[in-house]
Amino acid sequence: MTKQEFIALYQDKMEIATKKDAERLVNGFFSALEEILVKGDELSILGFGKFETKTQSARVCRNPKTGEEVKVPEKKVVKFKAGKGLAEKVAK
């Protein structure tokens, strides 16, 4: 699903009059989520899941084609862990 398809679905589910208003609300959520994660905080939504940042430690990997070792530096990554309610719905 693309972002535009999601906006159309959101507009329909929330009975929002215009696509422009739905897009503004969706973009506002994404912007707020981005701000939370950039600060290093987490967002927990009971029954849905938790968005957080984790630090992935530096490691040495191997290029499968050449066998050469490649050093991968430490970096921050975004993680999402589904809540029990969402996980149960998806598993059905």
Question: How would you concisely characterize the structure shown here?
Answer:
This protein is about 45% helix and about 30% strand.
Uncertain regions spanning at least 5 consecutive residues: none
**Termini, distance in Å?**
20 Å
Number of helices: 3
Q: Write out the strand line-up for the largest beta sheet, numbering strands in chain order.
A: 1-2-5
What integer value in Å does the Rg equal?
19 Å
**How helix-rich are the residues, as a percent range?**
40-55%
Shape from CA axes?
Answer: elongated
What is the quaternary state of this protein?
single chain
Mean pLDDT: 95
Q: What class, by secondary structure content?
A: alpha+beta
CATH domain class name: Few Secondary Structures
Give the H and E element order. HHEEEEEH
Report the CATH superfamily. IHF-like DNA-binding proteins
Could you characterize the architecture of this molecule?
The chain is of the alpha+beta class and 92 residues long. The protein has one domain: Irregular (HU Protein, Chain A), CATH 4.10.520. The chain has three helices and five strands; from the N terminus they run ααβββββα. Strand 1 (43-45) and strand 2 (49-56) form a beta hairpin. Helix 1 packs across helix 2 (19-38). The longest helix is centred in the N-terminal third of the chain and has 20 residues, at 19-38. The two termini are 20 Å apart.
